[in-house]
């Protein structure tokens, strides 16, 4: 019976990337690629030839219709079971840049398919064109067998954001996918990919070889720069001009005011990207004065904001004051974070006095005062939420794109926060904290080490090595148990530590992510409970000869088996959670490492099971040599039996060592990606 469960394990382990997160599929029509269509495949060029793509762009240009290009987009959901999603192709004049991209979106929404035109500003800012069908005709689409297909025709000449896009000239091609909601695009789960070289889409040249793609940085690199120290700042009472040069909030940091910077400790290297300064207003008791500054590298609407939290440096339950540039306006606008999202408040500008503000295309700056007790009122609470910073509070600094209405969008990078609560009248240097991200990384690292390495080795040893190394029993305990017990004990301890860490990090709201978005929390919790049961059940293990021992063995094995499957599935899902930027940073790389690990571990289980079946037949064939010494009368006076070593023992030992090394390698690879992710 156990080998039936073994096959179930193999299927679930190897296919969990398909069950819980989509991988490449083979149903794309690629036979005409390079023949009647030019093709670009995501995530690599080889996927076109093999038909193993997650996204596929096909385009065709005919001289008989010089003003149009036929386009087909094919793609799978970003996650298995996703309801509404989008796939898109974009064209850009600049290399490795999401900003400045003219996008054609293929969107699936509630059983319908449509195509829209949009334009990417800085970072994650994507806005539909005022005429969202501009330059797009002949639209058709369908979703069949979990493959979304859109066919449409693009005008060769198009214009967006005062920029011309001629498909007859070389352009960089960008491809991406993500979830959708009510026809609107939500941020992609994995970084888009871009061609390293420009392609001429409307070309009469022979069909081109399938190009390679490379990950596109969704947050544009910010060149090192020092905010100017003596620029004129426009008085808040005057109209805002886009040509003015904002002042700088660096002067007096740690001398006359406290400061928080991104990146931390950027003064000496002169690479500050965003700065918050704060102090108690000496002229108005009960008031605090703040300055917000950020560097701007792309046109569009932007913000830099401070988050105020009285209890902990958490995004949830924090008040926000943002210096926002939108249209021709610069203003300080209040909002609130009820959870890991931002909402508008009814009293956006109440009791906020802006004294200086400015935006010149290179930097954004605001200086303002407000009461030390600030209320935030809205539908998120029955009564206004009051945050008092008169004593001590945690401060957070974030920046990112804004909507044309002035509402802030998701920050471009993980916000930075003070490690401890600070006083508004303190000018001492503050220590910034990456604690939230580090806690996520610690949780992930512990769980990966526990279940990829410790549990995999411990379970395999208990299943197939009980009859091995029986000539040695240190302290009266068999070798296999010397391996199994500490490995599984450490796996449970690591799981407990990881659970405590994530419980602290989320304030007990570890199920805040709904299963429809990512089932990692609930699946991980079930695996954790099952894992916790194992050592408790082991305390009641009957003696080897007891009547209930077989029942215990089956129960112990079954619970451990289910626990391991769920834990590996939870790791797949955890790597794709937005709180962990590993999936955004490295695309499918960590997923394929997990697939390779699952395939290898399943293969080893198959091979060891085959050996288990073969060994009994080898034992039957094992020859026994009888050595007889015969005296002169032909009588036997001595008989000796010489037995060979146990069949398969050397092979199984070498397989155990190889499994240990390879599983350790896969585990280290995932741990490294977790450690270096942003």
Summarize the structure in words.
This protein folds into 3 domains: 32-215, Immunoglobulin-like (Sandwich); 258-433, Immunoglobulin-like, CATH 2.60.40; 436-614 and 642-676, Up-down Bundle (Four Helix Bundle (Hemerythrin (Met), subunit A)). It has helices at 2-20, 46-50, 435-464, 479-506, 520-538, 549-575, 582-586, 589-621, 649-676; strands at 38-42, 55-60, 68-75, 85-92, 101-109, 112-120, 126-128, 136-144, 147-155, 157-160, 163-166, 172-181, 184-185, 193-194, 214-215, 258-262, 274-280, 287-295, 302-309, 318-326, 329-337, 343-344, 353-359, 363-371, 373-376, 385-388, 394-401, 416-418, 432-433, 625-630, 636-642. A hairpin with a 7-residue loop joins strand 2 (55-60) and strand 3. It contains 9 helices and 31 strands. 40% of the residues are buried. Helix 3 runs antiparallel to helix 9 (649-676), helix 4 (479-506) packs across helix 5 (520-538) and helix 8 runs antiparallel to helix 9. Strands 4, 5, 6, 7, 12, 13, 14 and 15 form an 8-stranded antiparallel β-sheet that branches. Strands 22-21-20-19-27-28-29 form a 7-stranded antiparallel β-sheet, with no helix packed on it. The protein has 678 residues and is α+β, with helices and mostly antiparallel strands.
